[in-house]
Amino acid sequence: MLQGRGVRALWGTGVLLAAVWACETARNPGGIQRDLTPPTISLTKTPPDTQDISAGLTFAVSATDNLGLKDIRLTYSGGYIALTDTVFFSTVTASSIPVHITFPSNSNAGGLIRIVGRATDGAGNFAEDTLFIVLNNVKALKVTLIAPLTGAVAGTGKYVPIHVRAVQVSGVKRIGWIVTPGQTATTGVDSLLSAAPPYPDSIDLIDSVLVTGTSGFFVLQGFAVDAGNLSANTPPVTINILSVVNDVTPPQVEHFVPLRAEVGDSITVHATDPSGISKIGFIVTDLTGATVLAADSIGLPPLPPPNLSGNATDVVHTFSMKIPGITTFPTQVVVHGFAVDGAVALNRGVSGATFTTISPTGPAKLDTITLVAGVTRSFPLGGKIADAIFNANLNELYLTNPSRHRVEIFQVANSSFVANPISFGVGVPWGIALWPRDTLGAYGDTIVVADAGGTQLAVVDVRPAVRRLQWRQDLPNYLIETYRILTSQGGGTLEQITIYDVSDRPQYVATVCRPAAGTACPPDQIYALYSTTPTVSSTSPFGGKGTLRMEKLVSPTSGFPQFGKFFWEIGATTANAGTDTLRIEQIRGQTSTVVLSACAGVSIKLESFGLGDSTYARNSGNFKHAFFGEGGNITTSFARVMAYDANRILQTGVFQSCIGNGRTALASGFNDVDFGMSPGVNVSDFISNTGIHVASVATNFNGLTNVVRADSIYYLDSNLRLKATSCTLAVGGVGCVTGSPGMDMNYFHDFSPGGSCTPTCGGGTNVNNRLLFAARPDASIDVFDTFDGSQILSGGLPVTIPIRDPIIGPLRVAKDATGQLLFGITAKGLVMVRLPALVNPNPAPPRR
Predict the structure, then answer these.
(1) Residues 385-394 pLDDT 10s
(2) N or C: which end of the chain has fewer CB within 10 A?
């Protein structure tokens, strides 16, 4: 059984008494032999070696002893610090213990964890076993030894550069390096200690060590300690010390470059030589090698800074290739690195096919790489992006990063993230939308963010001089209720109201405005339409299900009344034996209001009323329409989509009383009805046509074209009628591929997927805007015509935009002063592509 540390003292006394007894019997007067057989212990894990913190730390302990175990102790160090004891108070000769440790959501544990298990028997004999597990946690301390790299060499009197980087969201307390054996260098260890808290979330320690040994080797390792005193080490690097007398051997050179690269991607060149490195660089040529497209180097003066001293024996430098003039993608080029040592002969070497086989005497390494479109930037602190929106006023993209509790800001002008994003503290920013100014597409420098960590929407001013929260829009609590009249055997009646509490936390959000006249948005007529994220406390049958709602966005100091709407319209159906009469209460502060009374006689099927756990929301560019898709895990046979039209009537403040026939005042209340939300019949019609699970949704500038992505791409009109489909074809043109949900339409897309073809199919302004961009799982983007669903062709071949990494998250198409932009979330960060001018050759749908 498991015991706390308080019991451990009692067992310690038992050990002491046993030791005294052992001394008394050391003379062995009775012939009893002391137990000298140690126990056995084994720590085992189930592959893989890396475990995600969300699933916990899991392994198993098994121990045996010939007479009996007394204690099993587990000591954790590295990325997780803890100590546990299992104490046995009865005779146990064999024990198998499954270990599963869970961590809170804000835990900083992670990285390489060392687990030492010790089994002790009653005579004090013990045995140990050690286990290493990597715990994956984006919040964990991460330490990287950037220099030196594996294969580095050194010469006496020369320096070995050191570069250690540590990142931890809660702060890095100490960073340093260790050299062993210490007599090979002037300093065996060095570190940098941060000042008082708060500690920086990242530190780079750039240092060097003077080599004093004349032969042999030494081992260098980086380390760091975070604010919680958790430590982590880098893998060690062994550095050989070589003679530099009469050096005529070129440096060892290697380079690292992605074989599928962007024109501005980096190339890292590593060179090592016991005489030191005096110059290092790279060269890019065309496929023939005759034309140099780009080159760069650093070295001793008069080369421009940063300069080399010539005393460093192992140099690692990262260059930006900056290959100019490439406008057609994909394009292939050849890349290699080179270096010159510091010997009298100034020996020159190039990247070798094998790092330890020096070129040019050995075979060279010439990488043929494929250049693709786009610029990729990693997120400052990593994380996962849930949603994104572009603001052309400031030329910025805003991305919600719930795992880092902030909204990232990407500036198109300099292709970089701002240093100080919009922090949400411990909030969970998820969905994001712009603040409407009119129904012509104008918007303000304000964003609306769904905070899934609470029950509020955040209204944020994003102007560079401000960048802060304006107010939190508190969201009401809605109770879904069923109303019935029960009849007793004596003929009496009883009203039965069953309450179902559902999650009020917002997830995805869209914005619309409802001007009474004209196009300007009145300050009290701006609305957020949002889906909710399920919580474990939701009442069955709403466990794991979300809902759709609307909230008027008004500042607490504006004086405008608050208003909210629960969209029961999406689940309304005709009354039958399997339906319930719906009643909805809205609780705002201390006030409870019936916003849908039993008198209205609205019938629903309760088990299919809730939505999936990820219901996506997008609004049209003119803020007059919105579109929703039921994604994530769903329990219904088919996913659903919903459309919203802000031009339709919103009926509020209508009170209905129906006292009598067994009904009391409990049946009465207000009946708020929004005729803009698509009714259940339209949703059911879409379901029966397709039968799919939604992965993403998109809507165009005027809401006339709505697109759903699942097993295929489905084009719907504003009435949710299916008009066309597309398929991202597999290589070879046989079958469809799935796995990349991202898609979006051209920013100026104002077409319908149906209707007349005079003068243009779909009635828009420019057929070249009638385009949809859909990500593929093979790191490219297909382009489709949204009227007939066909892929755009150029010269008889499908138009595909190649990028470096597959898009695995949201995809957005926007416009700045120079043209159309495409943004996508990849495993490496954010990719931005300036879209070329595309010609849509499809004036009319093909014959079928």
Answers:
(1) 999 999 999 9
(2) C
Residue 727 token pair:
């398929």
Q: Which CATH architecture has domain 5-136?
A: Sandwich (2.60)
pLDDT one-digit tens code per residue, 619-630: 999 999 999 998
Q: CB 496: neighbour CB atoms within 10 A?
A: 10
Closest CA to 172 of 146, 190, 192, 189: 192
User: What residues contact 64, with CB distance under 8 A and at least 6 apart?
Assistant: 39, 40, 93, 94, 95
Q: What is the pLDDT of residue 843?
A: 67
Mean pLDDT of all residues in the chain? Answer: 88
Side chain identity, residue 696: S
C-alpha 249/C-alpha 357 separation (Å) is: 11
Q: Which homologous superfamily is 377-473 in?
A: TolB, C-terminal domain (2.120.10.30)
Count CB neighbours of 784 within 10 A. 29
Burial bucket for residue 603 (CB in 10 Å: 0-12, 13-18, 19+):
middle
Residue 682 reports pLDDT greater than 70: no
Locate CATH 2.60.40.2550 in the chain.
5-136, 252-372
Structure tokens at 442: 């104008």
Cα 414 versus chain centre, distance: 23
Phi then psi for residue 680, to 5 deg, are -60, -30
Helices (H) and strands (E) in the chain, counts: 2, 66
User: How far does the chain reach from its first CA to its final CA, in angstroms?
Assistant: 73
Cα dihedral 174, 176, 181, 187 sign: negative
Contact 121, 68 (CB under 8 A): yes
Backbone angles phi, psi at 686, to 5 degrees: -65, -40
DSSP 540-567: TT-TT-B-EEEEE---TTS-PPP-EEE-
Q: Which architecture, in CATH terms, is 710-848?
A: Beta Barrel (2.40)
The pLDDT value recorded for residue 634 is 66
Q: What span, in angstroms and rounded, lies between the C-alpha atoms of 582 and 591?
A: 20
Token readout for 154 is 């050194």
Residues 481/583, Cβ–Cβ less than 8 Å? yes
